[in-house]
## 1
Amino acid sequence: MADAPLFADLAEGPQGGRALWFTAADGVRLRAGIWPDGERGTVLLFPGRTEYIEKYGRAAEDLRARGYATVVIDWRGQGLADRAYADRLVGHVGDFAEFQRDVDALVDLARAQGLPEPFHLLCHSMGGCIGLRALMRGLPVRSAVFSAPMWGISMAAWMRPLAHVLGHLAGPFGQAHRYAPGTGGTTYVLDAPFQGNVLTTDPDMWDYMRRQVAAQPDLALGGPSMGWLHAALRECAALAARPAPATPAITALGTAEKVVDVAPIHLRMSGWSNGRLDLYSGAEHEVPMETPAHRARFYDEAAALFDANG
């Protein structure tokens, strides 16, 4: 492990933060951001697709204020971690099992760095898909908080069988690296206006996200590849066929959610004996980056769960 860049001025995280390079079992170089202050334990924070460490600097401060250290990962293919193709903007992975190698390496790093235990999980969107699989594999956390987890891909019903067919054929025909239909090499927060965006209703948090990728373009990511889409559809289907883990859990979901498929979330949480679904009225996709009232509720509920299972 060696020191890696951390754009602390953009992250606005707690004092004393740092970043490290580390390596997954298959040799992919990853980046971790660590904010180590927290007497109650450490939150393993799994970001969503297109995201990166600095986007969770304010989240780390919210968690520090409630007694928790935070470690955030740049997944393979995003942030400053290794990317699969020369076109850095295409988000690609061949199989979601690859992300579990990243998870295993992050747990090893957290322990090697002596971060306070017990560990808890907080994950958003695609990170919620990765996090659910990790829990089923025995991730060593006491509890888990999900924000708008990607347990299903939101698309028109008529597109779903077509997406499966195109994804299945993309690999054999050497097209897995191509952007999925309807996407391309643009970064959403730089391309979309605040009015009508699908991420947050809070203008300050929108500006926070825009500033980061505008100042550090290497953090940016565009649309997913055909390979990513096919892998994501397979993983969501595989997870849906398995029972919920025993881990105590909360899932936060905005009532204005437009990015992930909400039906699998309601179905999963209705059968999670040790879990509950919290709805946030009027919130968009990124509840942890919503209005101050929503954010305060989200982190208070997360900390209460962590405290109860410490």
## 2
Amino acid sequence: MVSTRAVPNLAFRRLRGPRSAGEFAAAVRRSAREIGEQVACDARYIGRVESGEIRCPNYAYERVFLHMFPGTTLEDLGFSPRASVRGRAARSAVDAPPPTAPPPEPGGDDEESDVLRRVFMTSGTTAVAAVSLGLGLNGPAAALPLQRRVGDSEVSAVERAVRQIRVLDDRHGGDWLYRRASQPLRAAYALLDAGTVSRRSTADRLHSGAGELAISVGWLAHDSGRFEDARSHYAEALATARVAGDPALEAHAFCNVSFLARDTGRPREAVRAAEAGQRAAEPLGSPRLRALLALREAGGRAGLGDRTGCERALGRAHAAFSRGPSGADPEWMSFFREAELEMLEAQCWAALGDWARAARHAERAVRLQDSHFTRNLALYRAELTWDLARGGRPEEAAAAGHAVLDLLDEVQSSRIRAILHDTVGALGPRTGATSPVRDFLDRYASVPACPADPSPSGV
């Protein structure tokens, strides 16, 4: 029996020097930002590297470490060669028995290591991974061949999983779906790691599908308030895009990184990521994609209090959007219609404190939104409620708030609930409120904190 005991990485520990693990993790994050990477490095991750638990970093971390220590190799930093780690995982997968239980759910830092991705593969063959792509939400999982060669059927299963997750998210939000979607994501990366892809075109589709799945799961984490999980998933998608040379996937990843940075109070990072996304999107020929990325930039500049820069970015967004849809628009942008344009602009004006203008755009967004996008409709109404409350129009805010509560049986989104919570605080105490406002506050107080999962149908 070959020992699998972790061997401490003394070379990496020496590089840390007198700094604490937390201080060194902060230096890693700063270096990542310098080269446009996104890594959710913390003291725990540094500890896992130094203990030898992480024998080889993922591609994003590799680029950051080599940037921090120019002229070195992974071996110089105490890591095992990537080929040896990949080979061992793949060989172990061939003879391993099928799992008796699904792999554990990924936590906030699981996605940081390629090694942990391969833990899934030690549970069985590619067939096990493929079966996991059915989501198990309605009907049977995808039935895929039992060989290790990855072909069109496996890649199609990954693409179907992406579409199904997006449809369910449009209707119900991220809270209930996130953990269900994590298993197909592990399965998609297991296919990347374990199989021999039959054609280059199939390999390209698989990389793109796995990256899009990482973004979709990252968005579910984002929407349900699991921000560090979201950062890790987005970073993995970005690394996949860089490895595959896929500018469309890279632009999408940067778009979501910018969105997350804005939502978590890092407006400067939001601007940088949006600008990087715009550079990646230049050769793609999609005006709508350029418009969305310009709106992401506008949101970051609004968070910085840069009204002039925000207005310029909004102008570029409107100009690009006015060119209309095109055949080059990515499939994932089906949500980006005029209603979303209005809502993102409303959020910019809210960040700048122009509540009246924010409310006007939010009202247009609610009026224009397709009822199919139930989660976004609830979000738009919640944003309108907040803008009206902050703008000194409490009774109108209460009316809009009732419309949000009407949808909470169908939609589970921590993001929407957080907006409602803040709105209730802005409306003030129940005592002294007018009757319409009191009615809304009473109804909000009676809403269960964690309602049961919805039961989607027809998917």
